[in-house]
Amino acid sequence: MKKVLHIIIIAFCLIASSCGKGQMPLREEIHYSEALFALGELASVDIKVPADTWQKILSKASDKTYYKCSVTINGEQFDNVSIRTKGASSLDDVMLMKSDRYSFTLKLNKHEKRQTYHGLSKLLLNNNIWDATQMKDAIVYDMCRFIGLPAPLTNYARVTLNGKLFGYYLMVEPVDKNFCHRNWPDEVSNIYKPYHNLAYSGEDMKGYADIADFAKVKGGEASMQRVVAALKSVHEGKNLKKHIDLGSMVKYMALQTIVVNFDCMTGRNTQNYYLREADGKISLIPWDYNLAWGGYPEDEDMEGEDMLEGQGEPMLPENAGMRSKEEVSRVVNFPIDTPFSADLSERTFFMKLLANEQFKARYYHYLDMLCNQYILGGEFGKTLSLINDEIGQLAGTEANAFYNNDRFHKAQQTFRLMLERRAASVLGQIKGSIPSTWEGQKAQPQQLINSDDINLQDLGGI
Known about the structure:
The protein is of the alpha+beta class.
């Protein structure tokens, strides 16, 4: 009986093998991380949508309604796909500019539940409206992976609309079930996209609605009870290892400190991060860095200065992002021991973690790693070269581009200078030759890294 069964199995394998000759491999045989997100290999995303539907998308962009389309990704066609505009203030900015270069979400499985591209059910296409480098997200997420912090995959795509070039976009992997399976295949993840400062405010669950109401993967009351228990553990300084994924959290904090993104909790906002709860431990997932390194104004009094004075029209990207020398210096020398421009009393979750000496030592370790090994040690240069090989001659050549190709290359030069100066300041702060708090820097400004030759406007920003 065993011999017969063995013969049947061999015969089945031979039949399957012969049937596969000369055919494309099954979509699931190559994971989307390899098929689509190999940085340096430009992808193609061909969108076909009826002309009247496209006009609806443009005229009702703020609704972010899904419309049917067909998409061909790297030669593989998908019908019954859904497309919508994406973004918040950046979407409004595109509308005010009367541009058609929106960011988009493509959902492959909205109408056909099992339809994916090599396991990817949703794809984000970012227009990088306020990022003249076109690569801040790509570089930050690359930094994350370098230190072992889970982060979205990115790559670039030549996007066409009904057969005509539409633009060169940054593709981003969404933080969803696919992301969780790629990073934690054997664990149950509960994912939230909060608008909360993570401060513990008592046992009343109503105080955490800005977390609970924004569950993206699973979630639920039991999970939220564990989240609140984790926030309480940080508040009280007890049982941290039980409730916090300390290895992941310290990497996240080091990353945030290096990139100086004021459009998140580093600044006055409480957004642009994901919270993961798994088996009672929480960690944070990085998200949305097109305004990192000072692209978002730190001073709330600057809100609204992206409007042309006296004209009530949006400032075009090439004219936005102007910062004073003092503001540039605050980005370059952002203090590593008080790494928030918001009131520190509103960032107690992080400051209490930094008060733990072991946590702080590991935090310094990853800061050093990002500076000495990634920025100054050549990893940044390697990634920059890959991006240049991919889009160096293409970025900004589209009719609807926000920045031309010369601006793209100028932004790269300033970006490299910014990262080198930022690394020099952080390393000086670790060694103690540069003050590492706001108070210390105010008292000893002569110790800071000089940044007078850096023009942040080169990088874009609002």
